[in-house]
Give the backbone structure.
Amino acid sequence: MENGLDLPIALRRARRNLAKPAEQASCALPARPAPDTLVVQTPKSKRRRVNHEADQPSATGLTPMIRRTRLSNKGRAQQNGISEERNVVPPKKRRRPQNIKGEIERLKAELVKRDEEIERLQDETLVLDTDRVWELEQQVAALKRELASHARVQRVSINPVHRWTSAVRDSNPGDFMELDIDSEVEEFGVAARAEIMSSTPTREIRASFPTPPSTSPPAPAPGTQTPCRRLTPSRCNVSVQASLPDPEKQQLEPELASLQLEISKITATLESYSALASRLSEKLSPFLVNPTPEAQSSTPHSEIEAHLTSVLQTLSDQATVLAELNSSLKSLGFKGSDAFEVIDSLRTHFRTARLELEYLTPGEITLPLTGAGAEVLDLLLSRLRDLARKKREADDWVDEYRAIEVSLHQQLSARLHEAERRSREKDTRISELEVGMDRLKAAVEYYTREISELESLVERMETELAATVPDVRAKTEAEGQTSSTNLEAKLTSALEQITALQSQLAALSTAHAEALQAHKTQLSNLTKSQGTSLAQRDARMAELRAEVHRFSAALLEAENALRKLWAENARLVAANSRLAEEKREVLKQVEEERRKAKEMVDGMRAELERDAGRDAGVKRGDERELISLGSGNVGDSRKTGRLLVGELTRSGSGRKRRRYDSELGLLDEEEVEGTP
């Protein structure tokens, strides 16, 4: 029963040609005392083929059974020697007790089967309501008792078969009303019932009345099902020729119908229980423990109790596992009231994660969108591991960059402190230079006043000379000699000052060279890659030294010019106008030379500031050179009547603004443009 539930009806049947000959031979007798007759109906539809799967058996090739004869045929009754009145009138009255007996026996057999099924279900599992099963058992027991009481009543009330021993026998053999009681009893007894079931007469009758061959099909094999319908058998009672109703039996018929209905309900319930028990037994068979022989022979219900105990234990374990699984699924944090909704939510999230991965890395993932959750989870975990590894690498890089940034900040702070220190030193130097510039301006103003006084004196002398030339020529010559002596003394002092300035210039050049050498050493230690720029700067410094020497030569030329002027001072009275023009030309030349020297010094300073912004000594040396040059010019102007002081005043009146270089925060020194 358990194995045939999952198969179609056509596959549950056996082939007709596979039936054993012994079974076919026994078809003439009924399988049970019940006189039920199965009438086969031929289907009207075409023969259908069943498509079988690989794990199912092949087709049986069943063919519906066809019955050629029916009990309603009158010719069969006439061949058996039975009158038509006996076939039509009395059968209902005669069949009723036999039907009741057969029905009772059938019900008993069904009850036995149901009891066996109930016991089997009780042995296998306790799945549903125990109270309901107990109630059904009580109903079955009540039905048994009721059927037993009905059977006793029927056995008491059924009359024996009457034998018409006193019936009138006619000598006419053709009279169909002449009856042989013994043959009739034998004919309508067990043999008649068997003949009616098989629809084939006995050998004795077939010997006297030839009949066509048997066309009835053999009885179906046990366990097979055929498309047939149950018909109410027609029985003939030889002893009674009238149909008399039995009121007691009519009263029992509704009860019998209700009992059949209850039995059908019980049968349906038991079938559902058996199906459920078969499914549970298949699923729980790996977990069931076989009972020992001692436990089986101890009590009749020990196997049932052991089986129930194992089933209950297994059910409790599985219930605990399911509860834990349900709680663990709910603890994951996904929405859903039960485990199925949580699993659906998990499936949705897995698919969403797979789609997001496809959006993030299109075409790089070979896993399909309908992949299993475990594969998607493995893919997500691999991606997360890659992201974690990349994050750790990025964190390492960030830490390294932060360390580099901290070191750069420290270097920058050190450079800023050094730049601030140098800026303070330069501010101090600028203040000192400003003080010196103020003093130089005061001296220039003093020299300007002296020159203006000398010019007024020259004009007054010229006027007096024009008025008293003849009278004062002798005096002028004497005064010229005296003034020439004074001029010689002044020239000597000027030469001494020039010599002192030259010595200072040499000292400054030496200091400048030493500062340049130190600066070169420092630059070579700091950046070895700037050799080319250092060589260019050295060449530039050589050019600057050449310019300084040329400027010294220009100063010597100016000194020679002053000596010429001093030589020509004796002829001052005769050539005063020419001397003034020569003085103007000399002043222009000196101014031009000084402007050129200033431009060269500014160019040198710009070059030095671009090449080595830290070299403050070079700038101080340039300032000293300019100051020395200015002092030399001042000395010359003193010898020549201080005519250069005004130019010095005009040239040293301004200052440049403070500028900053674009290197590592180092500041440039301020420049002082006015160099005497």
Q: What stands out?
A: The CA atoms of residues 494 and 636 lie 6 Å apart. Residues 9-164+175-287 form one domain. Strands lie at 37-40, 228-231. The chain has two domains: 9-164+175-287, 403-527+534-651.
